[in-house]
Specification:
Its cofactor is FAD. The protein is α+β, with helices and mostly antiparallel strands. It is built from 11 helices and 9 strands.
Length: about 375
């Protein structure tokens, strides 16, 4: 497995970087925050991303997509990490699309995936009821009332929750099994409350009050539906890791530029040996992180190797734990090396630390995934 980009992937990375630097620099995030955007994202920018085909990258051609794979979408997510661009690429085009491909019926695939690929439907997973990630702690219930399915429960801190057209919600059925159900954002009985996260992105708290569902809203048929939930989460964790790599890489490069420009005692501070050593350590970490992310993305595109070691779940947790640590270190070091100016809101570097902190926490922090990796390996 080559841990390098081929020519097509390199072209995708370069075109995505050019587009985002021009259309969605960090100032774009500032504008959304200062204008108090209701959804936390720009509809015009999302339309342009759709015209570029980004939501269709990881979806098969037979389902209305481009068939470029999760590696291609991960490359784009790395670039959105560099510019801190809010979009539903991770939640809808990667996580929900992966869950549908993994566990949906043929009819559901034909109905849902083309709309996601075309950017016409933003389908967002809603899998956590608690502040800390614990996908098995599910009190939300789907029950049969006189032949009609009813969903009751709540979700907290759902990313892109105010921009979503529909949600993929994990719930327990009357047998206690985990199922995933699709809930329209305008469904009667659904209440959404916006919540601004530390990184200025907008999430949502959801409450489901006896929402009526049909059997067609339940993902897949009889069987181990919890496997689809775990596949959705593993895919999201790997996508987060790609974005974390972009956040860390951009923070590191901005810091290197600052070390070359800032002078003390008549010389650039980058000439100080102590700072050089810290920068060299970060460079090594980022090289390791790049290899881990590419390996994990390749595993998503080659799901047939289920008996390989490590498993996809092990790979996802290993990658998230390492990339979270790398990104937190890179962004914290960036603020320290910038000195006092790094603490100000007027300077961009602090936004990278905040985004890294949120990405580290969502879908489980590094400690959660270190523990999960150990348990998966039998410790």
């Amino acid at each position: 497995m080559a841990l390098t980009l081929n020519e097509e992937q390199t072209m995708l990375r370069d075109s995505a970087r050019e587009f985002l630097q021009q259309r969605a620099p960090v100032q774009h995030l500032r504008s959304l925050r200062d204008d108090e955007s209701a959804t936390g994202m720009c509809a015009d920018l999302w339309r342009e991303m759709t015209e570029l085909g980004w939501p269709a990258i990881a979806i098969d051609e037979s389902d209305g997509g481009l068939g470029f794979g999760f590696t291609g979408l991960g490359i784009v997510l790395q670039e959105t990490g560099r510019t801190l661009t809010p979009s539903p690429l991770l939640t809808s085009a990667m996580m929900s699309a992966a869950a549908i491909r993994h566990g949906a019926s043929a009819t559901q695939r034909e109905t849902w995936l083309p709309d996601i690929a075309a950017g016409q439907s933003i389908l967002v997973p809603a899998c956590d009821e608690q502040t800390r990630h614990n996908p098995e702690a599910i009190e939300t219930r789907i029950e049969n009332h006189g032949g009609e399915l009813k969903l009751t429960g709540a979700r907290r801190h759902v990313p892109d929750g105010m921009a979503a057209d529909a949600f993929l919600v994990s719930a327990r059925n009357e047998e206690g099994d985990i199922v995933l159900v699709r809930v329209a954002a305008n469904a009667t009985g659904l209440a959404r409350e916006p919540v601004r996260l530390l990184d200025t992105h907008i999430g949502a708290h959801l409450r489901f009050d006896a929402i009526s569902l049909s059997a067609d809203d339940v993902l897949g048929g009889p069987g181990d539906r919890s496997a689809t939930l775990h596949h959705l989460l593993d895919t999201g964790v790997i996508g987060q890791s790609a974005e974390l790599l972009g956040v860390a890489s951009e923070a590191f490069e901005r810091t290197l530029n600052y070390l070359r420009e800032r002078k003390q005692f008549g010389v650039p501070i980058g000439s100080f040996q102590a700072l050089q050593h810290r920068a060299a350590d970060l460079c090594n970490d980022l090289e390791l992180g790049t290899s881990l992310v590419l390996h994990a993305l390749h595993r998503l595109d080659q799901p047939g190797g289920g008996n390989e070691l490590p498993s996809l779940s092990e790979t996802a947790s290993m990658t998230k734990a390492r990339l979270a640590a790398i990104a937190m270190r890179a962004t914290a070091e960036a603020i320290q090396m910038h000195g006092g100016i790094g603490m100000t809101d007027e300077f961009d570097i602090g936004f990278f630390y905040k985004r890294a902190r949120i990405l580290e926490t969502l879908l489980g922090d590094r400690h959660f995934h270190l523990d999960r990796f150990a348990r998966l390996r039998g410790y």
